[in-house]
């Protein structure tokens, strides 16, 4: 369970606990009010039976037995009765009380004050049927509400999962449309020249077809969430230098009016990186396509430079295109953002950045309007990759 989900569940539990406590207090208050009303009604209902005794108690003030008799009888009527005062009722003060008028021989003879014990009233209210029924009803309605909320959240999670799946499918579809442009352009050009195809052209055709197959297989694995189950062969390290040279053959043929150069400043003959060839091809193809779309009509050039540093391999891609405005540069590596392309998808730089960061690499972007754009790819040196490729 994620921290976010755990936090939400904790908050919901606290909310429902607060609601239950609030409902319990409300039911308790209503039950207490009912007990107070019941006590007053009981005393007032039965006090007429002892009017003669009460009247004598007021007349014979020196006889305490009458006062005690009245109190005893009232306690039998309601257990919450605490004290009574017949002689001077106004002097008796308490929180919960009732004043009962007294008549003697049908003539008004003052009143009697009866006080009730707050503790006894509270205990009786907690044990009363009103409180018990109220708590049971609150449990029932809370259970119904919690169940309804749970089903609603379950439905929302299902919808969110379906939306996420649809988004992933849409992303894969866009990725296919984006990645496949380069090799398809080469195949289109070759199809026009099939009648005079040389061995070099046949080799290029095979490379293009192979790359299309690699793209399709890679996207299929993504769609099925099986990247972790790839075989050791598909996870082996690839030579960045060899992959770059192979890809440039395709682009030189597809774009004869553009000058492609590759300069190497490395000590070793091989440049192992911890990425499959298909992913390296995807990154480079996307970046080269971006450069091609910005190149001038004449003297167009794309220069690639492979450099070696202590902990990284650097691949620089520089073009002499139109450049990118400075305020746009930070947004270009955001998913879905595109600049200067009518049918752009905003995937190339984002995908390249995400893929490089997954292996501890980095993508840097610099550009000047009217001068061109430079993309620097940093691939970490990996001893395991070196061992695999050798």
From TrEMBL:
| GO terms (BP aspect) | phosphorelay signal transduction system
Q: Does the keyword Nucleotidyltransferase apply?
A: no
The UniProt catalytic activity note for this protein reads: ATP + protein L-histidine = ADP + protein N-phospho-L-histidine
- List all membrane-crossing ranges: 12-34, 126-146
* Domain Histidine kinase: from-to ranges: 175-383
Q: Which top-level group of life is the source organism from?
A: Bacteria
What are the UniProt keywords, alphabetically?
ATP-binding, Kinase, Membrane, Nucleotide-binding, Transferase, Transmembrane, Transmembrane helix, Two-component regulatory system
Q: Cite the InterPro entries for this sequence.
A: HATPase_C_sf, HATPase_dom, His_kinase_dom, Sig_transdc_His_kin-like_C
Any one GO molecular-function label of the UniProt entry:
protein histidine kinase activity
Give a yes or no for keyword Transmembrane in this entry: yes
EC number(s) stated in the UniProt entry for this protein: 2.7.13.3
Mind telling me what this protein is named? Answer: histidine kinase
Annotated organism of origin:
Bdellovibrio bacteriovorus
């Amino acid at each position: 369970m994620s921290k976010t989900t755990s936090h939400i569940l904790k908050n919901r539990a606290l909310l429902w606990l607060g609601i239950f406590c609030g409902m319990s207090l409300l039911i308790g208050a209503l039950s207490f009010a009912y007990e107070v009303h019941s006590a007053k009604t009981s005393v007032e209902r039965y006090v007429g039976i002892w009017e003669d005794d009460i009247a004598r108690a007021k007349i014979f003030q020196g006889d305490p037995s009458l006062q005690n008799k009245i109190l005893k009888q009232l306690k039998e009527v309601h257990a919450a009765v605490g004290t009574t005062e017949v002689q001077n009722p106004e002097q008796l003060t308490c929180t919960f009380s009732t004043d009962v008028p007294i008549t003697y021989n049908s003539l008004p003879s003052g009143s009697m004050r009866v006080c009730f014990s707050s503790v006894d009233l509270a205990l009786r209210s907690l044990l009363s049927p009103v409180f018990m029924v109220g708590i049971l009803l609150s449990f029932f309605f809370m259970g119904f509400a919690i169940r309804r909320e749970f089903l609603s959240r379950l439905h929302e999670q299902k919808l969110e999962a379906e939306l996420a799946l649809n988004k992933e499918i849409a992303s894969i579809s866009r990725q296919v449309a984006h990645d496949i442009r380069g090799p398809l352009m080469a195949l289109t050009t070759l199809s026009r020249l099939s009648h005079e195809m040389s061995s070099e052209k046949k080799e290029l055709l095979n490379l293009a077809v192979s790359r299309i197959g690699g793209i399709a297989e890679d996207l299929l694995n993504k769609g099925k969430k099986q990247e972790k189950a790839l075989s050791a062969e598909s996870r082996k390290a690839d030579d960045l230098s060899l992959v770059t040279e192979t890809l440039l053959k395709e682009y030189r043929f597809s774009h004869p009016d553009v000058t492609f150069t590759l300069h190497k400043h490395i000590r070793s003959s091989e440049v192992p990186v911890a990425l499959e060839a298909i992913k390296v091809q995807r990154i480079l193809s996307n970046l080269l396509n971006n450069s091609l779309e910005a190149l001038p009509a004449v003297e167009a050039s794309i220069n690639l430079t492979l450099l070696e540093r202590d902990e990284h391999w650097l691949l620089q891609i520089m073009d002499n295109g139109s450049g990118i405005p400075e305020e746009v540069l930070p947004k270009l590596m955001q998913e879905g953002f595109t600049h200067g392309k009518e049918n752009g998808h905003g995937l190339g730089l984002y995908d390249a950045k995400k893929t490089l960061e997954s292996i501890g690499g980095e993508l840097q972007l610099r550009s000047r309007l009217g001068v061109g754009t430079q993309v620097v790819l940093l691939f970490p040196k990996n001893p395991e990759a070196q061992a695999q490729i050798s």
